[in-house]
Amino acid sequence: MTDGWANSGLDLHLAIDPRRKTASLEDAVRAAIRDGRLPAGTRLPASRSLARDLGIARNSVAEAYSRLVAEGWLEARVGSGTSVADRSFLPVAEAAPQAERALRLDLRGGIPDVSGFPRTAWAAAVRTALAQAPGAALGYQDLRGAQRAREALAGYLARAMGVWASPDDLVIAPGFGGVLRLVALALVARGARRIAIEEYGHALHREILSDAGLQPVPLPVDGEGAVVDLLDDLDVDGALLTPAHQFPTGVALSAARRTAVVRWCERTGAIVIEDDYDGEFRFDRRAIGALQALAPQQVVYAGTASKALAPAIGLGWGVLPRELMVPVLEQRRLAGAATGAIAELALALFIETGGYDRTVRSSRLRYRARREHVDGVLRQRMPDARLTGMAAGLQSLLELPDGVDEVEVSARAAALGLRIEGLRSYRADAVGAPSAGRRSATFVSHRPAMVVGFGAPPESRFEESVAAMIAAIGAAR
Ligand SMILES: Cc1ncc(COP(=O)(O)O)c(C=O)c1O
Q1: How many angstroms does the Cα of residue 143 sit away from the middle of ligand 1?
Q2: Is ligand 1 within 6 A of the CB of residue 246?
């Protein structure tokens, strides 16, 4: 290895390996930034003079600089040359021993930022709801949930989501997960055994289905959403879908597939569970109406307050086909007779007084700005990575540059204190795959990608989390 001195106003020792000049220059600059020898704001010599000092080609230096800029180590500004970027979180994160390093940054999918939760307005709604509630409202309730809450929700869902909803057909449960469990148990009680799920999805929901006695059978997902044309071949009694915004790939089910899935369930009598987990957060396209409105007696529409308000509210809702209400309420009864009526009444008041819409609108603006920030940072620093999926919700897919591995990015991110997961980790494993003798749904191969849950960090850590993600991808190259 040859040592060279970069003299151009910069007293820095850079060790360059003549066999891998560009890569070793990059390593040397990264190391110097990491150990504090090159503080943020330090101007680096022009590529021509550094090349001369190090005795290497100018192109090698220029290439190393541009890669370090892309990774977020350096900044290039027209007219002021190349300088060290501000990565103030790095020395702290890297100085701590691995075991003590807290994963204090989070970009996992499906997690809302609760730092904007309207505590004061919610507390006022709880106080008023409690003050107004007649004595009977504090006793054992209708198993579907408080009448006033079902009325408020039915009105909201019809107005904002295009759901075909009547308060009589609505059941309130602990979150979407609670609704899913009740419906799955009811389907099993009616004889169902197998349910199609999207190849990529929420692992907990697959577990809830299996635990209830339904075998999940994966359906491939492509650029038009779940490949529902394969449903006929899978011998399933129902399907769990995220038609408005596939979780986590972010694509919407195409119009042709919406029609196809409605035809399928009407023809076969199967039940579709429409998981509309983030329907409130569509940024730049007109909201597509709920699938449920096309076949209200075959589709369960399910939603949650977990994203629009907070998981701590603990409320989700299902609008059910009539024939499912009795078996679902039987499962609800078996889960215990008490209800969370106080939170339900507070939610009703919050919807009636416009607090829910106001909260949704301000969160939507915040999430939209976050997605735009991720997009902008990628364009500037990593043009060979791409954000895909609709501009909506709390997560997007980031297609990685060629040759970069998802697991490696997650590991590099963890070393920087950031939790982020690759698309593969959301994939259903082979356990639920169709059994031999039945045509199996062929998996569509997806490019390696990270699921960027831009909803997860609090506002104060968001940009830092994105910077750590860029650094992790850069380090995994
Ligand atoms: C696809 C999907 N559906 C639904 C939910 C909401 O679940 P819950 O209401 O149980 O919090 C989530 C939350 O992560 C999700 O990712």
Answers
A1: 22
A2: no
Stated pTM of the model: 0.78
Question: What sign does the dihedral 17-400-423-236 (CA atoms) show?
Answer: negative
**How confident is residue 48, by pLDDT bands cut at 50, 70 and 90?**
confident
Q: Give tens-digit pLDDT for 261-284.
A: 999 999 999 999 999 999 889 886
311 lines ligand 1 (CB under 6 A): yes
Residue closest by Cα to atom 2 of ligand 1 = 277
Q: Are 71 and 29 in contact (CB under 8 A)?
A: no
> Among 138, 174, 129, 169, which Cα is nearest to 151's?
169
Q: Residue 286 is encoded by which pair of tokens?
A: 């007109």
pLDDT digits (tens, 9 = 90+) for 28-46: 888 788 777 788 888 888 8
Q: 434 C-alpha vs ligand 1 centroid, how far in Å?
A: 25
| Under 8 Å between Cβ of 246 and 219 | no
Apex CA 120: angle with CA 117 and CA 121, to 5°?
Answer: 80
- CB burial readout 282-312, b (16+ within 10 A) else e: beeeeebebbbbbbbbbbbbbbbbbbbbbbe
∠ Cα 259 264 268 (to 5°): 155
Q: What domains, with CATH codes, occur in the chain?
A: 2-87 (1.10.10.10), 94-114+358-476 (3.90.1150.10), 119-353 (3.40.640.10)
Query: Is the minimum distance from the CB of 395 to ligand 1 under 6 angstroms?
Result: no
